[in-house]
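Question: Hello, beginner here. Any chance you could explain the protein record under this note? Any guidance would be welcome.
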Amino acid sequence: MQMNPNKDTRLCISMSGRPGNFGLRFHNHLYEQLGLNFYYKAFSPKDLAGAITGIRAFGIRGCGVSMPFKEASIALVDELDASAQAIQSINTIVNTDGHLKAYNTDYIAIAQLLRDHQVAKDTTFALRGSGGMAKAVASALRDGGYHNGVIVARNEATGSALAKNLGYSWQAELGQQRPQMLINVTPVGMAGGAEADDLAFAAEAIDQAEILFDVVAIPVETPMIIRGREQGKRVITGLEVIAIQAVEQFTLYTGVRPTPEQFQAAVAFARS
């Protein structure tokens, strides 16, 4: 990845509690291939308000927003796109001459993946999580016509509110239910965390499910995904989510949409 930044290079960044290298390599690869004078860097801010002030102050063109900043950032931007307004969660900030507009490209990615993997509309599912990303996933499911679901969240306040807003039921644990699709939208299984080696759902529930969907992208092969692959189950990984939402971010930042071939090459490079 040959980069030669200069005084006119436009900077894009990401903010995450646990930064990874996928987005950095994905964006910078496309900048180089398309001859764009941009550079991308990942950060883990200690002061969220200060970081967003810095985006405005330094003229940073765009910022990817990951857990745990997706909701806390809302009050710090100037405008919400409809994709973010509807679910009150953001994952992208675009800076146009000091005006910060926030979007949610996670929603777009989830909707596309449900179509690409041909998940039947009558599939029963359990979604674990109640944060900003969970809102995007659950909203895409609801809007896509998936009505047979339950929100599983230990936090009753956020879990029950999410379920009520979208027309689903809520429960603290999955219990004896065995839905066809299990969706993890929590840090369980994420590298570097206290639950990195844990399954997002009980082993018995995973063994009886047909589809396993894990939004955790680091690692791509989470304990739940590994167990599912070993049994030949259909899996949807966090890598697929992050790749699709990243190309949508790239287009918002640069005004350029890569071809499918350029997109696939960037994904392959980012994974290498």
About this structure: Residues 107-236 form a domain with the Rossmann fold fold (CATH 3.40.50.720). The chain has a mean pLDDT of 95. The chain has two domains: 10-103+240-271, 107-236. The chain is about 40% helix and 20% strand.
